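User: Teach me something about this protein's shape.
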Amino acid sequence: MTGIEIYKHLPKTNCKKCGFPTCLAFAMKVAQKQADISLCPELSEESKQILEAASRPPIRLVSIGGNKRIEVGNEVVLFRHEKTFYHQPGLVIRIKDTEPLEDVTSLVKEITDYSVERVGLKLSLDGFALANESKEAESFANLVEAANSNTDLPLILMSTEPAIMKLALGKVGQNKPLIYAANRDNWQEMAQLALDYQCPLTIFEPRGLSQLAELTEMVGQKGVEDVVLDPGALGFAESVDTLTQLRRLAIKKNYRELGYPVITFPCDNTASVEEEIVLAAQHIAKYAGIIVLDHFSPSAIYPLLTLRLNIYTDPQKPIQVTSGVYPINNPKKTSPLAVTTDFSLTYFSIAGELQSSGSPSWLLVCDTGGLSVLTAWAAGKFNAAKIAKTIKQFDVANNINHQSIIIPGYVAVIKGELEEELPEWEVMVGPREAMDIGRYLKQNWMAHSIPSPLKGEG
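Assistant: First, the predicted structure itself:
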């Protein structure tokens, strides 16, 4: 709604209780999503319901799981650069009840414990999709129990049989798993289960978006609000077309019946593990909420986790580390001092290479607002004055007994200026690439390895 449309529902008393000078000013802030309508204490109940419904995000936020949960939806733009993407898609591994239980237990533990670190963040998989492949209630119940006993990650229960689903929910329903799935034949029973156990529900309708919207509306009328959509799109062309249409209808047309997160299955209808991973990567970009995979291996999963991190990092808030002096490999006062910016990828690349090289070192990190070396230099945020100021700010001389500093090779141009800022220091130009820092130190730091007789080892 526009500010004027919101203003029509306000009391127009200009009471200032909302914190704004006039009702019109408040309405404009609400329209810009810079204020919440609940700030108005004089709002009538009828107006409140109208405005809350109108201000609901075009894609509903749906939560799956207990303490550890997958939260998807609540997106408001088509493209990240327009604002940001808020909730990254959940990556889950599908396990079928036809697999031996001992293999299930081992796999569930392995996936639960799996994590990798990138730019200081722990990346991991998000849950499991448990499939009733056998169509037997006992086999599915055994799978659900085995998985639930060995993980605290969210679960997706996959069965089209309401009786079998009810049995599984009786074991893990308190953990709020995602029910998969309601279709034309079973939607009333599945919707009732979702209401009884207060679990989110997937709606599966592959015949078209009109039919999907119709079925979603019927489920909604029964009282189910937390919904995940499966339009049954398979393959590269069909899925990107269908998921883009869903996103456009929800965000641009405000089509409420399709304003829900989407689940996809790149594991179906792909000929190889490599093709499955490539299709999953497409779904991360366009526009899946939950992505179900059949294969797990660190070499296949790590690229997807990295891609997801890159896309769902707020472009307006660079990932950065705290400026300061970082010790690496237990350095001494004779150890070399290198300098870089606070952009996380830059810091962790250099710190990782120093760590793996085994060279005890000090790494000085300058506050550049989360910019990389060249970007910060071009913006005037990583220059001789900044480095000299940072050296004094963090009392670097207290950590070392020499006066040598290594600057990144990409900004060798500032060497002369830094020598003017620090006339008693030796400015050394390091390599351009982080991967060369270990070799560089072995070749260039030998002359600096003998402690000064004046300052001592400390």
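Now, about its shape. Confidence is low (pLDDT under 50) at residues 450-458. The chain has three domains: 3-55, 62-311, 324-448. If you'd like, I can walk through any region in more detail.
User: That's plenty for now, thanks!
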